[in-house]
Amino acid sequence: MMTHYMGTPYDVIVIGAGHNGLVNAAYMARAGRRVLVLEKREMVGGATVTEEIIQGFKFSVFSYVVSLLRPEIIEELELPKHGLQLLALDGTFTPLPDGNYLARWHDGERTRQEIRRFSTRDADNYDRFGLHMHHMSRAVREILMMRPPEPSSLKPSDLAGMGELAKHFKGLGNKKFYDLVRLMTASATDYLDRWFECDPLKATMSASGIIGTFLSPRSPGSAYVLLHHYMGEIDGVSRSWGFAKGGMGAVANALASAATSLGAEIRTGAGIERVLVDNGRAVGVVLEGGEEIRASQVASSLDPKRTFLKLIDEAELPADFVEGVRRFKIRGSSGKVNLALSELPNFTCLPGDGPHLRGSISISPSMAYLERAYDEAKFGRFSSRPYMDILIPSTIDPSMAPPGKHVMSIFVQYAPYQLKDTTWEDQREAFGDAVIDTLSEYAPNLKNAIIGRQVVSPWDMEQKIGLTEGNIFHGELTLDQLFFLRPVAGWAQFKTPLHQLFLCGSGAHPGGGVMGAPGKLAAVEMLKSS
Is the pLDDT of residue 228 over 80? Predict the structure, then answer.
């Protein structure tokens, strides 16, 4: 195959135009570097996209909510000027099989009244728990934007980093420090049992501890994932989750606009065949088709397995590093079902339209329900009665659907990437049927309201947007894969064994979610190394 050499026109090549890649590109361009972003698809965004799958209906196909996006990134890149508008979701509605329901709202008193119908003790504890998690979130937020120090290094920067970390933990005080350690190592179930007794409340809250992971609510470490999702923030209001007006593609489009306004160049339809390596240094990339583009630095926003095991000859990397990447847990466990509806779902427990349809709808009636869903996945089957986190974006942004019609986004757990004795190509529609059948038990009009549907399995996520095994976090958020262990011990500072090759995606610290922190932190390291 003929190779076309283009000289050395760029300071930085960013592989992948997902949100972290775009954040990285924007900050590098902001620092005056000449940046080229290369994206395999014909659109930017990666998992953060809006697509009109059914005519007139716009879907946030993969990721579907936003609020982990760091406030400093929104401010520094002036994303509202580039069209980003976040719409807050009003609470969580959990329909129950017995015809009852549990609702939590942003109005604290209204939420306490709802919870008091189930447990006076839990209603009294709810605000105390919220304050406790606020303190835990503040304790972790500072670490999120910290360069992970290497604990075995005697370099001044690492010693200073360890000192900064120790100072941070000391500043928490003994009680908060012990609470944080307990939270980092406990299961969501055990942690919530310390505070609450109401089963639907605990199930709905613990579901945040299993999203995107191959863990059950009783698995150690799931309490941290709960905290990870508890750190949502919109316009300075913590514990808030929202929807981007225009769908999640609006986030990527705002980031792309910010990056290009700062001088970055974005090229779509440009898949990467391999990273060019010269004497242990990344010097550019070769595109699918043979075109060669060179740069002084290369940043990959792809997951670690795709970056190091697909785009680079293993002989160019240390054997122990390659083995660490192979062992990195990246098991997909989530699916999506996107529906075009002729009318709103009518829930038996709370009929008609109302504010309960303008927030998150959680199918998580009990801890036993979630555990059974996990048990099926554990043995290689998708959950026949799954946990679902549902939004109806058209209720807060009518532009997402034709007048009088609606779109529904259903995030589903569990959908294991590895199915026993079958494939996702054979089981995709059966999975979609299981989701709709389960939800129809709570909203009987749903089936007749469906105009069209899109079912997305972990295998589809891998095929369409390059997420290895369909893992939405680029690797599980377990204690053995966080901070200075992410993605591989000794290589958690965004640098890689190849000189001037950096990792800027969610497989790097601080992990997954539409956060942008890995992209920004990697840019800081790249600027130091250039």
Answer: no
Please list the alpha-helical segments (H only) found in 87-241: 108-116, 120-144, 156-185, 188-193, 199-206, 222-230
Distance (Å, rounded) from C-alpha 183 to C-alpha 187?
Answer: 8
Q: How far is CA 477 from CA 258, 345, 493, 520, 530, in A?
A: 29, 34, 17, 19, 30
Element (H, E) at 389: strand 387-391
- More reliable by pLDDT, 153 or 503: 503
Helix or strand (DSSP H, E) at 449? helix 446-449
For residue 437, what are the CA distances in angstroms to 97, 207, 342, 343, 445? 14, 20, 18, 17, 11
Where is 436: in which H helix or E strand? Answer: helix 424-440
Peptide bond into 374 cis (omega under 30): no
Say if pTM beats, i.e. exceeds, 0.90. yes
CA distance 115 to 206: 16
Contact predicate 27/50, CB 8 Å: no
Amino acid at 4: H
Query: How does DSSP classify residue 453?
Result: E
Domains for the chain: give ranges and CATH numbers.
4-86+245-330+475-529 (3.50.50.60)
Residue 453 makes CB contacts below 8 A (sequence gap 6+) with 337, 338, 339, 340, 432, 436
Residue 455 has pLDDT above 70, yes or no: yes
Residue identified by tokens 């709570």 is: 442
5 pLDDT tier (thresholds 50, 70, 90): very low
| Terminal Cα distance for the chain, rounded | 32
- Identify the burial level of 518 via C-beta atoms within 10 angstroms of its C-beta, where 0-12 means exposed, 13-18 middle and 19 or more buried: buried
Q: Say if residues 334 and 212 touch (Cβ distance below 8 Å).
A: yes
For 23-56, give one letter per residue: b (16+ CB within 10 A) or e. Answer: bbbbbbbbbebebbbbbbbebbbbbbbbbebbee
* % of residues, the chain, pLDDT over 90: 76
| pLDDT for residue 1 | 30
432 φ/ψ angles, rounded to the nearest 5 degrees: -60, -40
Residue 38, beta-bridge partner list: 15, 267
- Per-residue pLDDT averaged across 497-517, rounded? 94
Average pLDDT estimate for 376-401: 95
Q: What's the rounded mean pLDDT across residues 100-110? A: 91
Residue 381 tokens, joined: 């089957």
Q: How far is CA 489 from the centre of its chain?
A: 22
pLDDT for position 134 = 85
Picking from 449, 461, 351, 320, the residue whose alpha carbon sits closest to that of residue 18 is 461
